[in-house]
């Protein structure tokens, strides 16, 4: 127990020394600025394949893990932007949408490189192309997962029609929906820790930081949601019309700090194993 505390404490002070708070701020702002271009690209991609109804489901799936007090205002603004689905975005604005979306990936790379103590030797254009590839694959994966989420209830109703005994187990659909959201988070964290920063790490080396990140995200989300339910008026009084944006920014800053700390924790565990703690 004391050894675990020493490692966690070492990770925290390395987080402070590596400018973790400033990097978390950069990640939060980059994530907020890249969210809308990414979803515009997803919407255009869905319209191109005639899956217009999946865009709204994709937004809901992405925000499922956020506290309701944060997700609802941002979700409304996103839907206002995405009400006009334009396929011409794929031919005119796709380059800018993907480029600005990839800025969020690059901010994560900077944070993890600092956490793991790595220096980039790869070319900047190669890193940018890699980030763009993650954006495209992520958009396609979200659309595919949204299609399965939409198709799930339809298949369940058909199954209940032929096997009425399944009707009491309707909670399975809700469980699968939350499982899909959890799978998105876990896969994204594994990919980020293993392949975004310079160097290579095994799944066993990044697993502790990922598990701690998920646990702290759940705790922070619950605490932040509870705080907003009691004191949301403070943001409205202070920031007026910008309250929803500031709430989202504070939430993203919290989650980004936890994300960077997860990388620092993995690095601290590695140092402890090497006998340099």
From TrEMBL:
InterPro entries: Virul_fac_BrkB (IPR017039). Its main location: membrane. PANTHER family: INNER MEMBRANE PROTEIN YHJD (PTHR30213), UPF0761 MEMBRANE PROTEIN YIHY (PTHR30213:SF0). Keywords: Cell membrane, Membrane, Transmembrane, Transmembrane helix. This is YihY/virulence factor BrkB family protein. It comes from the Bacteria. It is found in: Cell membrane. It is a multi-pass membrane protein. The lineage of its organism: Bacteria, Pseudomonadati, Pseudomonadota, Alphaproteobacteria, Hyphomicrobiales. One of its GO terms (cellular component) is plasma membrane. The chain crosses the membrane at residues 21-49, 89-112, 132-155, 175-196, 208-227, 239-261.
């Amino acid at each position: 127990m004391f050894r675990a505390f020493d490692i966690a404490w070492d990770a925290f002070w390395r987080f402070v020394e590596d400018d973790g708070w400033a990097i978390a701020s950069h990640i939060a702002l980059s994530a907020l600025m890249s969210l809308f271009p990414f979803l515009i690209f997803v919407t255009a991609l869905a319209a191109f394949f005639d899956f217009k109804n999946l865009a709204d489901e994709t937004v809901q799936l992405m925000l499922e893990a956020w506290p309701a007090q944060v997700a609802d205002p941002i979700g409304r603004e996103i839907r206002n932007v995405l009400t006009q689905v334009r396929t011409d975005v794929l031919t005119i604005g796709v380059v800018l949408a993907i480029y600005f979306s990839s800025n969020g990936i690059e901010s994560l790379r900077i944070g993890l490189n600092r956490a793991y103590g790595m220096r980039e030797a790869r070319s900047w254009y190669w890193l940018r192309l890699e980030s763009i590839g993650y954006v495209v694959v992520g958009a396609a994966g979200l659309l595919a997962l949204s299609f399965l989420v939409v198709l799930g209830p339809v298949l369940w109703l058909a199954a209940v029609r032929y096997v009425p005994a399944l009707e009491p187990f309707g909670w399975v659909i809700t469980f699968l929906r939350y499982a899909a959201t959890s799978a998105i988070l876990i896969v994204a964290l594994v990919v980020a820790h293993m392949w975004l920063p310079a160097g290579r790490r095994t799944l066993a080396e990044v697993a502790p930081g990922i598990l701690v990140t998920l646990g702290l995200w759940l705790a922070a989300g619950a605490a932040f949601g509870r705080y907003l339910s009691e004191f949301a008026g403070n943001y409205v009084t202070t920031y007026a019309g910008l309250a929803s944006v500031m709430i989202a920014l504070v939430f993203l800053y919290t989650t980004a700090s936890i994300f960077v700390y997860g990388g620092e924790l993995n690095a601290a565990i590695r140092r402890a194993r090497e006998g340099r703690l």
